[in-house]
User: Which sequence fits this backbone?
């Protein structure tokens, strides 16, 4: 009995330790995600105060992400000994191109809006992307119709209206840009979900996804850059007409830092989802918006009235309801799948048991009738 008691005591001590380690790991991954996500938001706003070329900045970020993704893929291949997925041209142009174009426009327009609006208005307006994601998910039948979704739409739309109503730092041009980016973002994330769900493509790992999408994103955004910033950038003293080499190197390093942050954001999201769940990422995203607004008010001097904060709270309640609905739907679906698997397994095994163990009861039942 003594060895059994010792083993039970050891097991009882292991469970709290495992729970603590898992909790610390989750907190660490969430903080890592917060660091990259909030960091790149403030970085973009800070850089574009002096460097007024958001589309060129985005193109540099895309190149840096592609290089980092290629290096990471090589290291992963050397570590695992397994070749990484490489899409053929037909799949690349038909499957990945629409997602890449939508992603490029979403990121490009979002960065462009930082020239005109505050971080708080950007954060709040960008939250409306949930509406467009929901809309396109229903269009592509990725989401089932639910009357509660009407409440989600009303809450988010009302919160956005309250936040922008009589805002002292409201800018129409920037608001339209980020709202358009949110609309395209709805298309982007819907197409991304479709792309990742196609197991035959093998793009479940975000490093592989980033590696394949960045070149197409660069090509898709480059014409808009030429039209809007090409000539003015050539005449600018920030890069092409710079007179001192240290100043040029400083500009290039500053631009490259954003690409590293963007790559880290994608990778941290993947780590958080793979080690915890997509629900953890969604809930973390809600609190991240709160942290971003508080930091924007404290560090950047963004002005927000009581009505603006109330609108933000209403919008967050809509997003939280949407996250809760998706969580309940996922659990219900998982339960149905589990029940169906049990039915299938019982249909294969139980008839054999019935013939052997329950045949006498069935015969007696038939004789009584």
Assistant:
């Amino acid at each position: 009995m003594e060895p059994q008691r010792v083993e039970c005591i050891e097991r009882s001590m292991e469970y709290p330790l495992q729970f603590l380690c898992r909790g610390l790991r989750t907190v660490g991954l969430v903080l890592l995600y917060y660091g990259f996500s909030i960091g790149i938001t403030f970085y973009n706003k800070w850089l574009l105060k002096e460097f007024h070329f958001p589309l060129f900045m985005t193109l540099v970020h895309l190149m840096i992400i592609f290089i980092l993704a290629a290096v990471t893929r090589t290291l992963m291949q050397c570590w695992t000994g397994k070749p990484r997925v490489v899409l053929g041209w037909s799949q690349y142009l038909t499957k990945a191109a629409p997602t890449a174009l939508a992603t490029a426009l979403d990121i490009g327009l979002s960065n462009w809006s930082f020239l005109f609006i505050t971080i708080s208005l950007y954060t709040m307006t960008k939250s409306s992307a949930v509406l467009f994601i929901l809309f396109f998910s229903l269009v592509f039948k990725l989401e089932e119709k639910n009357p509660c979704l009407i409440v989600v739409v009303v809450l988010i739309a009302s919160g956005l209206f309250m936040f922008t109503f009589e805002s002292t730092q409201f800018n129409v041009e920037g608001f339209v840009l980020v709202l358009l980016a949110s609309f395209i973002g709805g298309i982007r994330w819907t197409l991304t979900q479709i792309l990742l769900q196609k197991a035959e493509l093998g793009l479940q790992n975000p490093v592989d996804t980033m590696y394949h999408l960045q070149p197409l994103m660069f090509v898709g955004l480059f014409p808009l850059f030429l039209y809007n910033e090409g000539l003015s950038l050539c005449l600018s003293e920030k890069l092409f007409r710079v007179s001192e080499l240290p100043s040029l190197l400083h500009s290039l390093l500053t631009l490259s830092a954003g690409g590293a942050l963007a790559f880290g954001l994608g990778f941290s999201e993947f780590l958080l989802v793979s080690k915890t769940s997509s629900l953890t990422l969604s809930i973390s995203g809600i609190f991240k918006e709160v942290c971003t607004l508080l930091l924007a008010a404290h560090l950047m001097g963004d002005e927000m009235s009581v009505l603006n904060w109330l609108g933000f709270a209403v919008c967050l309640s809509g997003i939280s309801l949407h996250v809760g609905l998706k969580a309940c739907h996922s659990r219900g679906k998982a339960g149905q799948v589990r029940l169906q698997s049990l039915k299938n397994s019982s249909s294969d095994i139980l008839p054999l048991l019935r013939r052997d163990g329950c045949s006498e009861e069935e015969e007696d039942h038939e004789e009584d009738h």
Remarks:
- The two ends are 54 Å apart (CA to CA).
- Residues 139 and 190 are 10 Å apart (CA to CA).
- DSSP finds twelve helices and no strands in the chain.
- Confidence is low (pLDDT under 50) at residues 345-369.
